[in-house]
Amino acid sequence: MIDDGHHRMLPGPFARPTPARQDQCHARLAGMALAFFGGGFLVLPWWTLAIVPLLLGLAVLLANERPPLPFPQRQDRWVMAVLLCYGLSWVIAGPWHGEGLRGLKDAWPVWLAVPILVALSRLRVSSAWLWGGFAAGSLATGGWAAWQGLVKGTSRANGHEPLHAILFGNLGLLAGLICLAGLGWALGRDRRLVWGLLLAAGGFSGLMVSALSGSRGGWVGLPLALWVLYRGYGPRLAARWQLAGVALLGVLLAALYVAPQTGVERRVDNAVDSLEQYLDGDQEMTSVSARLEMWKGAGHLIAERPLAGWGGRGYRQAMRDRGAAGLQDPALGRFWHAHNDLLDAWAKRGLPGLATLLALYLVPLWLFTRGLRGGSRERRALAMAGVLLPVAFLSFGLTYSFLAYPAGGLVYGLLLAILWGLYRQAPVA
């Protein structure tokens, strides 16, 4: 063979990757991490989400580019501060109440979001990976819920342990709302019809998951979430499109309500009947009356120890003591949380627990709401999703203690970090 100096060695398995191949590899790896989160947080065991920061960390090691923006900026510090302080409230409460480092199991899922913030500050990742992952995940979750409810005959669709019908249904609704938030981004894409239909189908699938799970707490917060979507996107649409969207959504919600397979009408009627019985003084214990009595009991415990709280074990023992003293139904002593995130945090971790939880809700609301006023379609869509996250969790937490579960904290923390990481580098115009 004559060596003319122009031939090139074919890349073998041990050839050193070029910078271009490295950039392509790390971008895809980071995108796959976001898609894995959106697609798997309900159809896979919750602990598998720990793979997300690992994949993003590996992408950072492979990256060969300068960070898009300086990090941390003032707003980044706010996000990290609320995550760290919220987890710290769990850790400090343990030794204070004689429970050792028990709070670490609730702190680490939220703290895991901080490495994601750092990783995304050094990566350029297309938000298409996130929207595509959520659409696929919502559709997969909807299919799973439909199989359980319509084929298998399960009374209420549920997911992997420790998820159950309430967590599964409300998180499924959250996935659908995130898909609806992405519709504004889809309208600016080249294949807007494909992306729009995919995300709209994901949004409907999330509504169906909520209906088949029978999780009434999500239905309480749904009007507020839909109002947020309307306030974000409605004013930018022509009047005829606003009316068409409202009409279509109304038809879909009505269909889910009246369809006997979903059980929505039955669950709503049961809730109304239970509330009427409780107000009439009926002593029969129902899911509604039990919640009202737990809230009342938690309120009494907060009044006794408003600053330091009772701790996890102390709360449960105090509720049992109230039952033994005839102050409430003894059966309520078997519940380990107050079925309300704000009351649960205050009763167990005192005023620091309540303050850090409120900050976990309000700081993202404050930061993302400003992004709804203008900017690119991508930026507004991410801001909309960022607003819906605390709004949804705050609504869900009115009737159930979502963040009392490590799985709830993991989903909230990781999604907050991902949305903020993408939002901070999204084009302003």
From TrEMBL:
Membrane-traversing stretches: 44-64, 76-96, 108-123, 128-147, 167-186, 193-212, 218-234, 241-259, 350-369, 381-398, 404-423
InterPro entries in UniProt: O-antigen_ligase-rel_domated, WaaL-like
Record has Ribosomal protein as a keyword: no
Cellular compartment(s): Membrane
UniProt KW keywords: Ligase, Membrane, Transmembrane, Transmembrane helix
A single MF term (Gene Ontology): ligase activity
Membrane association type: Multi-pass membrane protein
Domain spans labelled O-antigen ligase-related: 207-357
A matching Pfam family: Wzy_C
Protein name: O-antigen ligase family protein
Organism of this sequence: Halomonas kalidii
